[in-house]
Amino acid sequence: MTTATISRTDIVALSTYRQGRDEYIKKMIDYKRPRRIKLSDGITLLFENRNTVLFQIQELINSEDLEDPKEVQEYIDIYSPMIPAPQELSGTLFIEVDDQDRLQKMLTALKGIEHHLYLIVGDEKLQAVFEEEHDDREFTTSVHYLKFPLTDTAAAYLTNGSFEHEQVRVLLDHPALVSEVPLSADTVAALAKDLETHK
Question: Looking at the domain assignment, is residue 102 inside a domain?
Fold first, then answer.
C-alpha cells in the first residue's frame, strides 16, 4: 500500500497558478460537489483527499502571496496530514453561518461534537477520530479535521461496487442535534476511488 503525499514540486508557481486560477476553482467546485455532505443548516462535512488538500494549500499560498520556499513547505507540512492514509477516509467538518450571534450559540450548543460523528457502512458504525478535542472549554470550533478509520469489511464494502449506497450514511447524534444523511452513489464512488489509490 502507498500513502499519497504532497511535495514542493507539486506546488504550481504563484504567477502560473494565478493565470489559471479561475478555471481551476471551477473544476474544484465540481470535484468537491459529491464530496460535500450537508448535515444540517450551517453544518457540512467535506471528504478530503490529496487533490482537495493540494487545492487548499495553493489557495493559501495565493491569498498570502507566499513565494518563500520555507513558508510554502510549512503549509505543506501543516496540511498534508489531512490526506487519508490507507484504509481511512479524511474529512473537514464546517460549522458556518453568517450571523455571528447565531454561530456563537451553535458552537456553544455543539460542544463535544467531536464525540458524536459516525460513518455507517452496512452494519458497521465507525466513529470519527478528530484531530483535536475541545472538552476543556464551553464551546467547540467552527472547523474540525477528522479521520474515519475503516475496518477491512467496511473498506471492501465501499470498494467492491456491489453495495447499496443507501447503506452508507453519516450520522451526527449530538444531544443538541441529530442528523443522519445517506450518501449518494456519486459520493460513495468518490470515496471508493480514494481507497483504491492506496492499492
Answer: yes
